[in-house]
Amino acid sequence: MERSEAEARHIKLVHGLRIHDHAYYVMANPAISDQEYDRLYRELVDLEKAFPDLMTSDSPTQKVGGKALSSFSPAPHLTPMMSLDNTYSEGEVRDFANRLQKLLPNEKLIFTVEPKIDGVAVNLRYENDRLTIGATRGDGTTGDDITANLKTIRSIPLALHFDAGITGAKKILEVRGEVYFPKQGFAKVNAERVAAGEETFANPRNAAAGSLKQLDSKLVAQRPLDAVFYGIGHSSGYTPISNHQKWLEWLNNSGFKTPERLWVCQNIDEVLTAIHELDTLRKTFRYETDGAVIKLNDLALRERSGVTSKAPRWAMAYKYAAEQAETLLHSISIQVGRTGALTPVAELTPVFLAGSTISRATLHNEDELRRKDVRAGDTVVIEKAGEVIPAVVRVVLEKRTDRAVPFLFPSSCPECGGKVSKEMQAGESGAVLRCTNYFCAAQMRGRIEHWCARGAMDIEGGGEVMARQLVQHGLVKDVSDLYSLTMERLLTLERMGEKSARNFLEGVEISKGRDLWRLLFGLGIFHVGAGGAKSLGRNFAHLDDLAASSVEQLNEIDDVGAVIAQSLHAWFREELNQQLIERLRKAGLNFKSALYKERALVTSGPLSGKTVVLTGTLPTLTREQATEKIEAAGGKVSGSVSKKTDYVLAGEDAGSKLEKAQKLGVHILNESQFLSLLG
What we know:
Layout: H1 3-26, H2 34-50, E1 74-76, E2 86-87, H3 90-103, E3 111-117, E4 120-127, E5 130-136, E6 142-144, H4 147-150, E7 172-180, H5 183-195, H6 204-212, H7 217-220, E8 226-236, H8 244-253, E9 263-265, H9 268-281, E10 289-296, H10 299-305, E11 315-319, E12 324-336, E13 342-353, E14 356-362, H11 366-372, E15 375-376, E16 379-385, E17 389-395, E18 405-406, E19 420-423, E20 432-435, H12 441-452, H13 464-472, H14 487-490, H15 498-511, H16 516-522, H17 530-539, H18 543-547, H19 551-555, H20 562-571, H21 575-586, H22 594-597, H23 599-602, E21 611-615, H24 623-632, E22 636-638, E23 647-650, H25 656-664, E24 667-669, H26 671-678
């Protein structure tokens, strides 16, 4: 390559990688896949090796990308948070080990291998055993102070009690880890967003990053975030530890979640074996992984091997290639959610990918579709984004034909023909195209299905098929119409037998007595999830009290922040919603809160202040029933076992949670003992 060509290419690569760094680290919205980024980065590294004088101090090869967001206070790290060199080649893993051996001649090198968690890197600073600052990585030296948001993650300890430390010394410790969205929680949140007509998250990492960027920590608390910790930054005043394996044991004993598996390898062949074993196991983890992290175990040898300007010489990430497939996108359809949001969906020629046959993939929103220039008739590459949901990665432009035409968003709702407008709801990340017709059939179906859902009014048989038929035959326009249905009307529906109709009507009748929090959740008010609805139920004795409350009153409630308060206040002042409430009142639904009555009992209940973990299948109680009993008795339900867990309620087929509880000596209850404890 000529010098002039190299210079021009260098400018283009540097500019492009800076844009992608900003999209990934600052905006949490990557524009390209990890593999494509790594390919561009490697090209820049090779170019600077061939032409060393082109390298500058601000080249992407010399620093970690990203800057602290202006909406958060800056939080400097005591020890820089460096990124890792990475590879997709086993040969380069061997080269990494050979380089280290040359730097450390005659030393026995022992390596560790652990999962590379696909989340958001964070740094926790503890001073004299208490958490003082929690921050994002930012540019590697200064991040964003997100302490309030991190404190909402229950698995993060607020204080340490394990190490007495060095007598008389001030204790300061930086703990590094990754905040992630659990796979199951991610699927549930995306399903709720679809039902609510909101834009779905592209992958679990985006969901975690978007959550941590929220300025309202009460909103963050409603997201099922978790964290895993795998390293130490600055450490002073604590008993010295000699290697990485022992540090992980220390962290685990101190209440931190650490990687589920750690391999200690005596040579590079064992490292490669561990990488292959991890690739098989990682699909069973609660979090997404995109690789394996290889580290030198001995901390003294790490110190001797040193670092480059960007990455440590003693560690490397081996990244697994994402499974992709090429297929034809034959059309783009529009899905209308229960809030009227119009979401573009790619209709694909079915293709087998990552264990399932994929025929549809969300395009999220209009901006995403435009940015990727996706057109009907294109050949596209798809992958499981975060190995959870199918996503269109890119268009295969060389296979584009004249028949591929840009998609035009409809000027009216494709479901009802109603007017559409682009608007942004409080707490949303961007404007969404919505149908403004409240009586749009798609919105009516969505509202009815949500109302009948198990977590809301729990009406048996009120799923998607029933909702579709009720709306299609004009029997129901909103949820209040469910309470005037008769056997005769139901029997006019397709494939509706007398037994099914009777069961559904019985479920509708039973739902009249559901507690207030279920009714609130079932109404589908923007941003009001089940947790927020329960908090409202604990603070208001009657729906009318809630409806009359001010934004300031709502803001003072736990789990209800500014966004939720504004949303609630506005909802109760809409005339259509007021009319709906009156129809539900006439139908005889319960507007009183049992949780409010129980508040006095909660402070002195048998589980007051206790944390309980549920695992396995109980003989008679469902998971929801057990949770309600625990909360009614003053307890809190947690999803993970730690030293802070008071009880584990275990049923049949209890797995790793029960094993961990036994190791930690946590009190284990069966259902009979649990009910006896509650009296």
